Amino acid sequence: QVRVVESGGGLVQPGGSLRLSCTASGSKFSIYAMGWYRQAPGKQRELVAVKTSAGTTNIADSVKGRFTISRNNAEKTVYLQMNRLKPEDTAVYYCTAVGYDPREEYWGQGTQVTVSS
Question: Cα–Cα distance between 104 and 11 in angstroms, integer?
Fold first, then answer.
């Protein structure tokens, strides 16, 4: 089994920064990609950033230049550095870990990010 654990959310003022962390555990799971999605109130869940084991990175246009995704610990842990936060970034942020087997897709519980003055 695989467990995905997130942390780092909180309340910040516009222009502030937060760093989200996510770790996936489980040795029988070969990770293809890890990334972040978010869901704002009244909106559908959307992709924020993903990073594959091959090094490919995909970041949503809405956060390019402000957010950075990084990976270490043999693709077991990913981070999302969020800078210059805007109120529109307010959402629950979910971490996902995907295996090479398409049946293997795991999600964290979500962490709340609130950007407000």
Answer: 32
